[in-house]
Amino acid sequence: LEPRRPVPVLGITGTGGSGKSSLTDEIVRRFRLDQEDKLRIAVLAVDPTRRKGGGALLGDRIRMNSLDGEQVFFRSMATRGA
């Protein structure tokens, strides 16, 4: 087994439509380019869904173009009822 090492964690929050998905996509793209796709990157998109709007779980994934490839893991999680 590989020895454990600290893993940086970045949290991005904001109101709907503030550009969180676009910012996240650009950060992932730049890490991939800078590190020549040698990093493994995980994006956990937590959607605090409301009963009225239903949330935007698919919208995040559709707008993010840098998620392709085996080095990037993307998971959407709804929080309704949690």
What would the keywords be for this entry?
alpha+beta, 27% helix, 82 residues
Describe the protein's architecture and organization.
With 82 residues, the chain is α+β, with helices and mostly antiparallel strands. It is 27% helix and 17% strand. The protein has 2 helices and 2 strands, in the order αβαβ. It has helices at residues 20-34, 57-63, and strands at residues 41-47, 72-78. The protein has a two-stranded parallel sheet. Strand 1 (41-47), helix 2 and strand 2 form a beta-alpha-beta unit. It is globular and about 40 Å long. The N and C termini lie far apart (34 Å). 5% of the residues are buried. The mean pLDDT is 81.
Concise overview:
Helix content is 27%, strand content 17%. The chain has helices spanning 20-34, 57-63, and strands at 41-47, 72-78.
- Strands of the widest sheet, in order across it, are 1-2
Biggest sheet, in brief? 2 strands, parallel
Please report the total strand number as a whole number.
2
Query: DSSP strand (E) fraction?
Result: 15-25%
Radius of gyration over C-alpha positions, nearest whole angstrom: 14 Å
Structural class of the helix and strand makeup? alpha+beta
**Oligomer class:** single chain
Q: Give the topology string: H per helix, E per strand.
A: HEHE
- Please estimate the helix content: 25-40%
Q: What's the total helix number?
A: 2
Could you tell me the mean pLDDT? 81
Distance between the amino and carboxyl termini: 34 Å
Shape: globular
Low-confidence stretches: none
Write the topology of this structure.
Layout: H1 20-34, E1 41-47, H2 57-63, E2 72-78
Parallel strand pairs: 1-2
